[in-house]
Design a protein that fits this description.
By secondary structure, the protein is of the alpha/beta class. It contains 16 helices and 15 strands. The chain has a 6-stranded parallel beta sheet. The chain has a 6-stranded mixed beta sheet with strand order 10-11-15-12-13-14, sandwiched between helices. The longest helix is centred in the N-terminal third of the chain and has 18 residues, at 2-19.
């Protein structure tokens, strides 16, 4: 029974990955019809454009760019896409620039500057197509002078370590950058801008996906300062960053463009894929497997360990009382949790989710928990996440592995590696956050 449940959990997760395929997402929303480019519900006469540039960044952006090329072919003048190392696709009309993620590097800065230069040269007779997916914030870094890349990296590290969520991290990054928070659209104006977005954020907020390079920005310099202060890292923040944020809050530096700004008059932002689509597909596969299935939410966030223990408690409720569904049951959720770094181990939020759940479910048979990132990478590891069951702690104990100690040290990778519990998919070239699957046999 336990082996069967693990196989079913893997099938359910694979269904989520298939649904999140970025090429299919682009094809569903972009096509050429009667000499017009159809993007969602809008139509653009192709003969009204002199040049079409294709720009972008993100873990899925190479596959998205390849899909756009298949639709527009030789109509594309050229362009540049910043991608994570190894997340490549076959393209002909644009250049792919590999760079670092999750910590931005100099290759990303160089690519971002070239993207800015292309956008800046576009005229009102041109079309700028952008493809943005999860990871774009780190993959398209353009520090605002005099802030250096190293100083921006330090801010990112501080925010990640203290448990800030993606909305908070991006709010700060927008205000120490030259392209984020609608500033790419400002550079491209008065060209027509159409951005295709593969959402990796809860709620699919346009100004948060990839830090919203072509979307109106709701955040402010004052808000960025408040976030850094609330998490207790303001004094640790590099002086150049604090100076810029203070000057911006005082009105001495121009704010990011807000809703209603003229730079967005010819800009369209279109979400083509999301966590909801992946979770819906996963639920469909679970039902095909004969499981009583419930989707908890696609808005799951918060401390990973706490969220994992809530899922474990639901599994216990199903076993004890048949609520909210009766066994055989499948509970699915999606979103993006956060991990507060307490130790010095190796892991990611999905591996930590599986480990925390396994501790709570120890001894309860016929229960499996899978947590995986749809991008195929969980934290700074080569695993998408992990899969655990009620026997996980027993198997680990036979090898001398203390689950609680590994959890305290944030070392979930090295806990799951010897017991073959890591979920490895390789790069998926997509990113619509995480999917959690709990099966009760």
């Amino acid at each position: 029974m336990q082996a069967q449940l693990r196989k079913q959990a893997l099938r359910i997760f694979r269904a989520a990955l298939i649904a999140a395929d970025p090429a299919e997402a682009v094809a569903r929303h972009l096509r050429v019809e009667g000499g017009k480019l159809v993007a969602g519900k809008r139509r653009y006469r192709l003969d009204s454009f002199e040049k079409i540039y294709l720009l972008g960044a993100g873990k899925a952006s190479a596959v998205m760019a390849a899909a756009v090329e298949r639709i527009l072919a030789r109509r594309i003048t050229g362009g540049l896409i910043n991608v994570k190392d190894g997340h490549l696709a076959r393209v002909r009309r644009v250049e792919l620039n590999e760079c670092g993620h999750p910590v931005p590097d100099q290759r990303g800065v160089d690519g971002a500057r070239r993207i800015a230069a292309i956008a800046r040269q576009a005229t009102e007779r041109d079309l700028v197509l952008c493809v943005i997916s999860g990871g774009a914030s780190a993959l398209m870094p353009a520090p605002a002078a005099p802030i250096t890349l190293e100083e921006k990296q330090e801010v990112t590290r501080l925010l990640l370590a203290c448990g800030a969520d993606i909305h908070e991290i991006n709010a700060v990054r927008k205000h120490i950058s030259e392209l984020k928070g609608g500033q790419l659209a400002r550079l491209a104006a008065p060209a027509t801008v159409v951005t295709l977005l593969l959402s990796d954020v809860i709620g699919d907020d346009l100004d948060v996906i990839g830090s919203g390079p072509t979307a109106p920005d709701q955040s402010t310099f004052a808000g960025a300062r408040e976030i850094l202060s609330r998490y207790g890292v303001w004094e640790q923040t590099p002086a150049s960053v604090r100076e810029r944020i203070d000057r911006g809050a005082a009105g001495e530096i121009e704010e990011t463009p807000k809703p209603g700004a003229s730079v967005f008059e010819r800009t369209q932002n279109l979400v083509v894929g999301s966590n909801d689509l992946a979770v819906t597909a996963a639920a469909g596969e679970a039902r095909r497997l004969g499981l009583h299935t419930v989707v908890l939410s696609t808005f799951v966030e918060g401390e990973t360990r706490d969220v994992a223990r809530v899922h474990a408690a639901i599994a216990k409720e199903i076993r004890a009382h048949g609520r909210p569904v009766k066994p055989p049951a499948c509970v699915i959720s999606g979103g993006e949790t956060t991990v507060k770094i307490r130790g010095k181990g190796l892991g990611g939020r999905n591996q930590e989710f599986a480990l925390a759940a396994a501790i709570d479910l120890a001894g309860m048979d016929r229960v499996v928990v899978l947590s995986g990132g749809t991008d195929g990478t969980d934290g700074p590891t080569d695993a998408a996440g992990a899969i655990a069951d009620s026997r996980t702690l027993a198997r680990a104990g036979q090898m001398g592995l203390d689950a609680a100690r590994y959890l305290d040290n944030n070392d979930s990778y090295h806990f799951f590696e010897p017991i073959e519990g890591l979920l490895k998919t390789g790069p998926t070239n997509t990113n619509v956050m995480d999917v959690h699957v709990v099966l009760v046999g």
